[in-house]
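ERR on first pass: missing label on line 2. Operator R.T. fixed the label and resubmitted. Corrected input:
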Amino acid sequence: MNYLERKAIEGILEKCRVTMEGLVQTIVLSKGKSTEDYLLFYFDKPEVHGLMEEALKGGEERARAELYRELWKAYEGLRERAMVRDVQFLLPDGTVLLRLRTPHLYGDKPSQVNPVVKRALETSLPQKGFGTDGVLSGYVYAYPLKDGKGKKLGLVVFYVSLEVLRSFLKEVNPGVSYAILLKEDILQRVFTEYRHYYEEVKGLKGWVIEDPYRKLKDSAGSLSQEEEKLLRALVLESSFTRALSMPGNHALVFRSQGAYYKAIVVKIGEGDKESAVLVGMPSGADIQSISRSYTTYEVVFSLLALALSLYTYFYMRGLYSLRLSHKSLEMVLSLANAGVVVLDKGGRARFLNDTALELLGYKKEELLNKVFHDLVHYHTGPLEGCPIYRSAMKGMSYKGEDSFLKRDGNPIEVEVDVKPIRIDAFLEGVILSFYDITTRKEKEKKVYDMATHDQLTKLHNRWYAEEFFASELARAKRQGLPLSILMIDVDNFKNINDTYGHNVGDMVLKSLAQILKSSVRSYDLVARWGGEEFLILLLGDGQEEAVSIGERIRRSVESLSKEGIPKFTVSVGVASYREGDDINSLIERADKALYKAKSQGKNRVVAGE
Amino acid sequence: MRGKFTPFIVLFFLFSSVLVHAKQVVRFSPLPVKPKEELIASYLPLLNLLERKLGAKFEIVYIGDYNQLIESFISGRTDLVVFGPLPYHIARKRYPNAHPVVFFREPDGTTSYSCILLTLKSGPKNLRELKGPVATPQRLSTCGPFSLSLLLSKEKKDINKIGYQPFETHREAFEAMLRGDYQAVILKKSVAESYMKGFPLHIIAESPQWPAFLLVANSKTLKKGFIESLRSVLLSLSSEELKGLAEGKHGFAPVKEDELEVIRRYETHIPN
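pass 2 clean. output:
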């Protein structure tokens, strides 16, 4: 393999590794936000606090039974919808009071084997990481539980199946095989009666797969035949076993039944305790074609060397276009996978490869010798402002993301690389290479949307709202603009859930979300703040306007009549920006106003003092 | 002439001895009182031990339903099963080739157990206060509707009026009661005792002592000599050998047929 070929392959692998790392991070973060919502919505409640208190005073038996009775339904719902494998309640000393999944197992101390739980107990702060619940493995999210006075009541620990990771990745990259491998020492932290669910990875000592035959429906999932076949080939590669033992994430190439594949190895765990790996095995067809094209390049290069002598003769005869095409052809052949266009100093296309024509949907004669920008480069603004055109004129390099216009009028997102062509220091033109990144951009948007939106109501989630709030507040301060927030809470929501079931509860929240969206302008922010609580950020509105909008929302909810949804009301707390306010003081004031609305009888709007 | 046929004669005897010494395969089905994987894992040490001692191969055939377990045994698809006293009684009535081998001793070393009716301390205090419904293990479990019906009859209550729901395992029945879906649950006493340590429960009724679980051989598919060897091995296991087991770790005892008659006395309570 020559240097250029190796560099090209390394570049592809690096992109794959970074993309997969990003996707894994996104899902971990997103699931963390979700479990925070579950905590607030289902588990961090006065009734639960009361039972934890009772357990601390010696009433563990009753507390355990009552907690199970109160919460098993919520847990079953999370298990079905959100791949939450288990929810556990721990006392402040780390003893398990209750496992909602297996209530007959209690009294042990998972902190002795689970670093996430241990850290949460020590720091009294939310923690996340990888771990086992004694049965199966997954992501662990541990939240300290405190009463209204800040007294420590223990922990609520969520165990989320690793299958959530595989499902998300398969949704973003269908057709790619994934496997999750665990270090064998995890078996020491699994209850004896569940150890038989783990099987050694054939050909890979020291690693196991969890529940390969999917005996438990919420395990990480069995491997398909294709995945098994690829894994069998992969474990034979010494570069893979090296990647497993070296720190950090890696990407490599391997072959199975004559075809190329990539293997992206992303470690799961924390710090030096990397207890599991996620292995993605996408097709390596791009790697294969690079190898082929470089072989072709080497043959052609030899021919070119022979032709060089002829080139000198033709140059002496002053054939300008042949010099240009010889030089550009040399560069074009090194970029066979990208669309390649050679532009002269006037921006006219002198050469286009097949990939470029295919991506743009044009025939060669439709683009050759035409000003490329006029037909293809999709942007408003003058030609002189176009970075590609400027490169062509001034002989500068340029790299960036842009939009091209296809022949059918549809835009495609591209990654563009422009390099000047100089012969004997004279600028002869530029060579423009581009890749279609439309799919990647769509996936990035999808990933971003998933991370910033609440899946039930399709509103922005709290994470996004906090970021947006911070920047808008800074702008309001700078420009002296009014800004208000509404905190909206569904009245008696627990009763709705208990009476009609969680499905109806979800429909109530979705209906409210629609009302909220239609009650404000498109540039105002509407977000699901947590559970049955929503936040609206009104830009440019003072208190009077904010109260009026709040009242409008309240009336719309009160008068809502929809089949399948019981009548419900909301309480609204309003707070408007004052000199010296920050996010916390604004939210606190809105919260207090909301509390006042609730205590004054609910179904009303109260402005903060 | 003799010389010509000698290789064939040698081959014949070799082949016959291979056939004679081919390993017997015994199809074994345990009583499905636990989830499948737990159940299989709990019998593996015993079966491995028997394979070594008897030179036979034991194959686990998991059957999750008591009724299907009985049918499979009667139809000759399984050779060796673990039955509770009620399933044994039902199978034996229809199939005289159900041959009891040994009792599995209970944790207290005895060869009998009872079923208890449990409620949460916040629930009914006694049978009289019980309005139902009740969660039970499987329909043909000794601690299922059979024992429940017997207990309710003491207070002249009709099981069909009280209502009951069978669950696949004892654990599922217990969790259903704990969730508040059922007023009470009836369980094998040794299983219930492990739950009583962690939950506020009390016993509102207890059944008579029933005979312990049995290992039952299909004398139509297994030879008498093999059954005798099996019995002999199990009754002579040392305490060291028993320590290495999961199911069977409390030991085994010979079966007395008259001990099994107690079920017949209450036959009217067997569900249809």
